[in-house]
Design a protein that fits this description.
Order of helices and strands: HEEEEHEHEHEHHHHHHHEHHEHEEEE
Strand content: 15-25%
Helix content: 25-40%
Radius of gyration: 23 Å
Number of helices: 14
Oligomer: single chain
């Protein structure tokens, strides 16, 4: 096997919120100025607040008290507390990949709306593709898996009470990718931490996502000698063929695939077969076609048994570039993450850097992932505690996600429906939204900008169920060139036959 280099890039997720005017509902408990009140947070417990400062208002953000510190010795955090016009609520963001840094800026849209906000590094420092911190360190692994979010949430609520003199009226969590896994872990294991949880493209089958799915996709791209079978230069060809055959299956040719499960990708791949002549840029050799078909399929053992719920979805092809398909000898982003996972987190005894993800065997090694899956996976369908506390869960996933297949999220939601009393009972507190044409946590050819937080606020605070979300697609000049409705699964949007296909009002829900 040829040595494969790793390209390190940062995984990140952005949760979009539309700014809105929120009236202040609480004020600081004393007449001290913001600097004095901020400094008071240092008194008595340096573990809660290691450093504080007042940050001046900017055109986009209010003045706030910035608190940085460490809980449980290794879990770093940042909290931002509006000095005026606090809306009485708390918002926390998740962290993608392996985390490793405190990205409080990801919460700034909520801060601008008057929220007290918090973020954590997951209990270690490093890049989002660096797993070395997990080597033979069970404490660090548990911190990243679940403990960091829980402890920082509790600590933030104590800081809020100290600063404002009262606890937050409502607490929200939002994260995508690795942050989506954190979101579901919170709902499952600490159901009273948050009133509303927004989980996007969750990596909640973590042990099998990295250990099996992303490993399968990466192995499919190389032959036994370590040579790349196909590369990014064929992605445009494959994507064009998929859209040519499947874009119109929903009755509308609009540059996005409504439900990739309806697309017969095997026939698409077969249609691209090269005639009996040397390879060309406009076709796939038999070996290339087999590799591409594997990427669309579930990982399988030699008996043909599926080891993960699905492969990459039809319509995501032009987004595979570097996320799922590397260049030359480089691993993709997903492959790089998978290799780090295998080396430093996947097993009860970590093999370290000597391990290559090409060493993984789908017949003999899957069971070795099971012990650590009990720490990392957020797959319990029993959300009874969260529901009993009045919690609301909003799941979303892009149907053109090239990094985490949406089929895993569909499978998880269906398991929740089965466990929690059926579709109607589940919809009272948990709903899934699938966005056609959206990539990983955003982007892609379809509308992907959604104000999830306002929908969650209305659900939690006003009892307004999210029967419809509006997704927007920004144009290059900053305007919006398409709005589409998104409905709770299993409903999909259908064009009513009149008016612009870029206007959400011309669509309605149907159950396919």
């Amino acid at each position: 096997m040829a040595r494969v280099r790793i390209v390190a890039m940062t995984l990140f997720a952005v949760v979009t919120m539309t700014a809105s005017t929120v009236a202040p509902v609480a004020a600081a408990p004393s007449d001290d100025g913001p600097t004095e009140r901020c400094a008071d947070l240092l008194k008595g417990n340096s573990d809660r607040a290691g450093e504080v400062e007042v940050v001046d208002a900017s055109p986009d953000l209010p003045e706030y008290c910035r608190v940085v510190g460490t809980v449980s010795k290794t879990i770093n955090y940042e909290v931002r507390l509006p000095t005026t016009a606090w809306n009485g609520k708390f918002y926390m963001t998740g962290c993608g990949g392996f985390c490793g840094n405190v990205n409080a800026d990801a919460c700034n849209a909520a801060l601008a709306r008057g929220y007290a906000i918090a973020a954590t590094d997951g209990g270690h420092s490093g890049s989002s593709l660096d797993g070395t911190w997990g080597l033979d360190d069970r404490r660090a692994e548990i911190d990243w898996a679940s403990r960091a979010v829980h402890l920082v949430a509790g600590n933030t609520k104590r800081l809020i009470r100290s600063y404002y003199g009262e606890a937050p009226a409502y607490s929200y969590f939002s994260g995508c990718s690795g942050g989506g896994r954190e979101a579901l872990m919170s709902a499952q294991t600490h159901p009273d931490d948050f009133d509303g949880i927004i989980a996007g493209a969750p990596a909640n089958y973590q042990a099998y996502l990295a250990g099996v799915s992303q490993t399968w996709i990466e192995q499919a791209q190389f032959d036994d000698a370590g040579n790349r079978i196909f590369g990014v230069e064929k992605l445009g060809l494959i994507g064009a063929a998929v859209y040519d055959q499947c874009d119109g299956l929903d009755g509308l040719v609009d540059g996005q695939i409504d439900d990739p499960r309806n697309c017969d990708v095997i026939s698409v791949v077969a249609s691209l077969a090269c005639p009996p002549r040397p390879d060309g840029s406009d076709c796939l050799t038999a070996v290339e076609a087999e590799a591409v078909a594997k990427i669309y399929d579930s990982p399988r053992n030699r008996a043909g048994e599926a080891l993960y719920p699905g492969g990459l979805p039809a319509g995501s092809e032009e987004l595979w570039f570097f996320l799922s398909v590397g260049f030359g000898d480089d691993l993709s982003i997903g492959g790089s993450f998978a290799q780090e996972y295998h080396r430093y987190l996947a097993y009860t005894r970590d093999p370290g850097e000597i391990f290559s993800l090409f060493d993984f065997d789908f017949d003999t090694d899957v069971k070795r992932l099971n012990p650590m899956a009990r720490i990392f996976n957020a797959t319990s369908p029993n959300l009874g505690g969260f529901k009993a506390n009045g919690g609301k869960l909003l799941l979303y996933h892009g149907y053109a996600d090239p990094l985490i297949t949406p089929y895993g999220t569909v499978a998880y939601y269906e398991s929740v429906v089965d466990k929690m009393g059926g579709p109607e009972a589940t919809a009272e507190f948990a709903r899934l939204f699938l966005l056609p044409g959206m990539g990983h946590c955003g982007g892609g050819p379809g509308p992907s900008v959604v104000d999830y937080l306002t929908a969650m606020e209305n659900w939690v605070e006003n009892g307004v169920e999210p029967d419809e979300l509006i997704a927007s697609r920004p144009a290059g000049d900053g305007t919006v060139d398409r709005n589409r409705p998104v409905y709770p699964y299993p409903q999909v949007a259908r064009y009513n036959g009149a008016g612009s296909i870029d206007d959400a009002s011309n669509f309605g829900p149907v159950v396919p």
